[in-house]
Write a structure and sequence with these properties.
108 residues, 5-stranded antiparallel beta sheet, 33% helix, 27% strand
Length: 108
Amino acid sequence: MNFLISPAYAQAAGAAGGGISQIVILVVFVAIFYLMLIRPQQKRMKAQQAMLAKLATGDEVVTSGGILGRLTEVGELFVTIEVAQGVRVQVQRAQISQLMPKGTYKGA
C-alpha cells in the first residue's frame, strides 16, 4: 500500500529565497500608496485649513453646496454669506470650499 502514496520531498525547497523579495515588494507598495494617495490628501487638507484660517469679512467664497456669496460676518464656527442683496445665509465655516477672486460676486 505504500507504493500508492509518494512522499513530497520538494515542498519546502522553493520558499528559501522568497521571503526577502516579498518584504521588498510590500515596502515598495506601501511607498507608492503613500506617495500617490496619502501625501497629496494631506497637502490638500493643509491648504484648506490655511484658507479657512484667513477668511475675512468681504471675501467672496463658494460653499461646498455651490452657493456663491460675500462674507458679511466671520465667526469661529459659522460664517454669514450674503447671496443676494438683503439675503443672508449662515453656514458652517468648514463648508467654505473655495475663496474666489474679488469681483466674482456681483450682488444683484
